Every structure is written in structure tokens, then in C-alpha cells.
Amino acid sequence: MRNYYETLGVERNISQKDLKKHFYRLAKKFHPDTNGNQKPEIMERFKEITAAYNALSTTDKRKRYDMGGRRGNFVYSDGFSSTHSSSKRELILTKLGRRENFSIKLFADQLRVEYSNLEKILKKFITVLNISARIENEKIVFTY
Question: What is the predicted pLDDT for the residue at 102?
Fold first, then answer.
């Protein structure tokens, strides 16, 4: 299974502007209505490039994808690779998005994950998403 950058045929460091231009060229080339080709493989290719672009279309989406791959799953063997990883990831992003200090231990209990694993994931989110926060005394502390 190719990653989304390969699906679109672009380098990881492509600018958002150039990514959009490239996607529109591909969409025009493979859109079944544009080229008059209703073959299943052409329609499937169009779906693939559309899904890839949707995953990379904004800076935030792209950071999430870059952090966790095609499904946005974490590359840890800590319980986040289960079928519930997507909902746990969304809970983490929501919690961080509130910009309110919180206890990592209590949050780990709510998510039913190990504290140390959640701490690693939070550090990665803080870094990759460029969130103004730090871990201090087993808590996430936001800085403004």
C-alpha cells in the first residue's frame, strides 16, 4: 500500500500551494467526467488521489498524517494500534485543543492507556503540532 505522497507522486517537502496545483492536474487527468473514461481502474485512481489530497490538504491534516501514516495511527505498540486508535487520537487532539492544563495520569486512566505511552504521544503531538505547552509534574501546562 503506497503512502499518500507516493499516490500523488510528490515529495514530502512540497509546499501546500504546489500540492494543490498538482492535485488539480491529477484530478483533471483522472476524473471520469472530464476525460470521458468510465473504466473502473480510472475511477479507482481518482478516488485514491482524492483521498490522498484530502489527507494532506491542510497544514494540520498533513502534520497528523506525517505523524501517524496513512491511517493516522501511531507507530507505537502501546494499545494505540487497535481499532480504537482513531477515537483515542481524536480525544487527545480535542483535549490539547482546549488549551487547558490537565493531569496526564488522569487522562491516561480515562483512555485506558499506560501513562508513559501517553506521555510519549503527547510530547510528539506538542512538537509536531507546534503547541505551546510543556510537561511539568505529570501535567500538561500550556504557555501563552
Answer: 94
